[in-house]
User: Fold these one by one.
Assistant:
Number 1:
Amino acid sequence: MLPDTIHTLPREERFAYARLLAFMTRVDNELTVDEMAMFEQRLGTALLSPAQRKMIRTALKNPPSLEECLSGMSEEAGRLALRDATLMAAADGTVDDDEREVLNLIVEHFNLAPESVERLLAWTKRGYDWMQQGTDILNEISE
Amino acid sequence: MYLDLAVDFAQEDVKGYAEIMVIVASADGTLVKEELAIIEALMGRCMMHPEMRVDVRNLLEKPPALDLVISKLNPVVLKIALRDSILVAAVDGEYDVSELKVIKTIAKVAGVRKKELSALFEWVKTGWEWHNESFQHLGLV
């Protein structure tokens, strides 16, 4: 929920970004509350129109193929989607093989460095640690 | 693992929480796209009902009175709202005096001391730096 550049992308790019995240939610056939909260958070950041949100929520039930999601997607939207797909994949505490494979396919599609996924996973872990620190501060206040 | 206390809000608390975000965002008299995006993100994280989100968006032009909203919130939600109001205030790149005034009022009602409030501001700064690192990893800087 920090400052981002997704909202600066053209509307169709933001939609493509959100569609890829919708695809990601279904990869391991299990949508946890944590993943859903992260998905809804990223969807909010994309500032989609109500009609687009409705289409994205439909895509949650019937996700498009990965090829469809990536087709025509810009470099910037794709890179941001890769980062946020990584955040979503890790939201339930584990990144399973299917999720890792999809992340690697996105990396390949955009010709990114092979170690991109590992770097983003390490970055994600630091982010979740940071979130926990925020909770710890609040807990200390409560004591 | 991604876990945040906001996920567990009761629906009656969610609206008050979002109203506080609106009050902070509109405190300086201008609403920028970054503020809209973060409010939408925070409403999304709470998994707020879509109709309730419409009600909150309608408040952006005429936000409710802070004291009325604060009085409705339970102490835990108020503390989380304090933390996230700092995020909202920071999102346009600087803390405005009017935003800080709202934040300090919330802190006072929530019983948060100066040192603890400073820790929350520092936490936001750390998160900002963490988030900016992602652009380097993605080659977007």
Note: The radius of gyration of chain B is 15 Å.
Number 2:
Amino acid sequence: MPTQPVVAASPAELKNLTFDAALEARIADVITHYPTKRAALLPVLWLCQERYGWIAPGVMEAVAVRLDESPAFVEGVVTFYTMYYTRPPARFVLQVCETLSCAVCGGRELVHHLEQRLGIRPGEKTADGEFQLVGVQCLGACGSAPVIQINDDYYESLTTATLDALLDELKGGA
Amino acid sequence: MEPVLLRARGKADSRALATYLAAGGYEGLKKALAMTPEAVTQEVIASELRGRGGAGFPTGRKWTFVPKDHPGPRYLICNADESEPGTFKDRELIEHDPHMLLEGIAIASFAIKANTAYIYIRGEFVRWAQILETAIAEARERGLIGKNAMGSGYDVDIWVHRGAGAYICGEETALIESLEGKRGFPRLKPPFPAVVGVFGKPTVVNNVETLACVPHIITRGAAWFASIGRPRNTGPKMYCVSGHVARPGVYELPLGVTFREIIEKHCGGMRKGSTLKAFFPGGSSAPIMTAAEIDVRADFDACAEAGTMLGSGGVIVLDQSVDIVEAAANLAHFYAHESCGQCTPCREGSDWAMDILDRIAAGHGRAGDPDALLRICRFASQGMTICPLGDAFALPISSMVKKFRDEFDRRIAAASPLPQKKLPVLPWAGPRSGFGE
């Protein structure tokens, strides 16, 4: 299956949020895995990110209400971890591994290449909202360096040529 | 050596339950369920299996620390957080043989009398979490796990719990906090998780590779397992080799092979045009080794004797093109990013070391910098922090400064002073500034 784009809901949609029945059913199920409601916080945030594309303040509040936590506690957890997006991401988030094995095996060149091609710096989005470049720490696939994670998928042993082909495909497949 | 943990790699449909059963899968669980939990633990103690996550603690002994008279519930956690730079073995295992891991989890849960097990997998491994979910559903449907597992009257539920991107959650107490739905802040020990763990209950946390060894110990016996490797360093080990070797990847070899054998024989030597300069023996948190130390044995005790550690078995091989100052700066960025921020020596130390290393790498080093780095590292290690992340950044950086001091000195000798920053300073208003009048 090709990498699915992130579809981020607009901030306005996520104000005064209530979960729909399908999402509520999944949340209710995940809570049964744990003896406390709080333990379901990370999985519930994942479900919300999958559904809305990112964790807006309104999502944090709705999650807090659902799990009987304070919004401040939920925000503290969301911001501790790096993978919850607190701002709407681009459709494809290019997460380039920057740690040692990738860095010495061509990772740095990939970052330079992406900066040139997309005209953005790490942390920025392209103007059309298609790509976002993020430098991340070790992705745990050092044997096939350099590695890029795009949304949920790993792309390994990349060269600038295969990366170019991949970006064309992602953009064309949209 | 015939592959044990990686026996399914390269086989067709290796992930399917049918394939695993055809290869004698779940026989170990069947055998274990007919034994007493104490006998299972005893077998694992006799095998001398040591934890593969990094610390190398004897697994069977860890299980015995769970209080016998505790009313329960007890929990088993499989640590699949795998975030140590240079380590990529757990992913390989899950990808090719998820049922081997599930069987190991079920046996270990039975041994410590836990009815619930969690697999804490790193957030980035979305696809591998899905593989595990599928495998769990298959095994549950067949009645191998779940209520009344294999008709034995023993219940075990296994749940997959995804992290969300934090290196620190590979540390067992941080992992427990994270599983409870909090920030991943490591806890003070004691109490150890075996006594007060997740949800305040006795908990054992074991690495994926450790648990995958357990079914083999039960089916083939402790003596067979102990016959692989060297005394006190027994069993097969998955070595992850990355960097400038001809064939990087995961290699399953008996504990106690030398790094020379791993690099030269199994990985096909260095890449064309590369000569070995240095390597990390067990993930980036282990002290670096020079090319002269290649004949050290890759096991727990031999690495400790050589002043480093086997850690997770992630061998990062660096060739002559790598600048050690830049490599140190790269790792300092990693640790500064991943420090959870609880303890001052680690939070400030990793950040400060990163600033100094970046400055040296940018050509503005100062004469006192290497000693300042060593001082920062000394202050962040040796029990000055709650968890070992302090040591994890201090050991590699101090070892790089010590073993490659000449590279640091050369950079510093050629350095120019840091250009003066123009800070916005308000003009001196005189003693009568107008405040408080």
Note: Helices of chain A lie at 21-31, 41-52, 57-66, 71-80, 100-118, 160-172.
